[in-house]
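Thread: Newbie trying to understand structure tokens

Hi all, I'm a second-year student working on a class project, and my supervisor (Dr. K.) asked me to get a predicted structure for one chain before our next meeting. I've only ever worked with sequences, so writing a 3D structure as a token string is new to me. If someone could post the tokens and maybe explain what I'm looking at, I'd be very grateful. Here's the chain:
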Amino acid sequence: MPLARSAEAVAGEGPPRAATVRRSRSPRGQGEQLREEILLAAERLLIETNDESALSIRAIANAVGVTPPSIYLHFSDRNDLVFAVCERQAKEIDMVMERAAAEGSDPWDRVRRRGLAYLRWGLANPEHYRILMMSRPDATPERFVDQRLSDATGLEAVASDIVLAAEAGIIEAVADPLREAELFWIIIHGMVSMLVAKPEFPFGAPDDLFDAMFDLVQRGLIPRS
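---
Reply by user tm_fold:
Sure, no problem. This is what the structure looks like when written as tokens:
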């Protein structure tokens, strides 16, 4: 049987199928580059859709130009990939808070500025925040419940400024500054969570809510004469 077919025979089969564009196999040593491309593509999808469900393995693979199995060479499952995307954002929270704190006039003002920056970041990135801070425990990788989460939320820095604020007489001395920092985080997390979950409720302007909350916290820590 001849290998070549006539033009008439080919024409009878209808229009050719569009070829699926796939990238060639990455050269040895470029696995980290592909992993980065996967994370960037997933990040773009999350920002564009503001919906975690849009991050399917197939959608991300198509965006990168690889097959779905290629994703699993770098991430154990979809959940691992989703949290890897948000892990990058967790580092951004800390940087945003530190930039805000650098403009503080005193230690207690630095605490306030960190908290306000945290609130604003959470509201500007609601889906990232929901995944990082509001996912079910059984869906959260272990690496998000250890010291790295504490580092990302700046607890040590806040605790240090609480000590300095007490030494300056701005607030009352506390027995456990780190515990106070954790309680402050819980309060702000509650604000972010409510504003993200109930955007239609008339809470008022987020910055005004934060100022009222911070004033309440400060009144509880004013040195007693």
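A couple of things are worth pointing out once you decode it. The longest helix spans residues 78-101. The two ends are 104 Å apart (CA to CA). Feel free to ask follow-ups in this thread.
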